[in-house]
């Protein structure tokens, strides 16, 4: 069973990297593609992330670091523009597994949820509002738009998850492996600096 779980995680990782799928969609596609029973337990996200890192190192070591840096620089631009909402970045751009197919996920912590929408309107951003499950399991508003990345020469999806200001304390708790699940502008700038070739 453990071999099957790892096989499924490896298959999902390839879909994450090559097609830009999120982990949930990639795991479901892997389950279907492998023809295993629908009730088969899916690999956890930590295992999929480990397989994504291995896949990137094997097949994209020459291009992925540059694409990640470009996405992090674009994320920093939006974090600066939205600084009043205490933005924190999460997902592949934060954890270092992003490629040019990855979107940017920013979590905003607002006193007034509508203020983030007003800020986007002020920046003349054409966004799509929707509702998603936030990091604490509750439904939150999300604002999604495309932002041109000059370094990559293409539009990148940017998703703003709007959380209550008081949720920030819980957001800073580390994940299961002790790693930070999100970071503020300073933390992301630090990661970008650390990854630059010397």
Task: Write a short abstract of this structure.
With 198 residues, this protein is of the alpha+beta class. 46% of the residues lie in helices and 20% in strands.
- Helicity, as a percent range: 40-55%
Quick check: average pLDDT? Answer: 91
Tell me the strand order in the biggest sheet: 3-4-5-2-1-6
Span of the ends, CA to CA: 44 Å
The number of E-state strands comes to 6
For the biggest sheet, the summary is: 6 strands, mixed
Apparent shape = globular
Hey, roughly how much beta strand do the residues contain?
Answer: 15-25%
- Class by SSE composition: alpha+beta
* Poorly predicted spans: none
Order of helices and strands: HHHHEHEHEEEHEH
Rg is 17 Å
Q: Number of helical runs?
A: 8
Report on this structure:
This protein has 198 residues and is α+β, with helices and mostly antiparallel strands. Helix content is 46%, strand content 20%. The chain is built from eight helices and six strands. Helix 1 (2-19) crosses helix 3 (45-59) and helix 4 (64-81) runs antiparallel to helix 8 (185-195). The radius of gyration is 17 Å and the shape is globular.
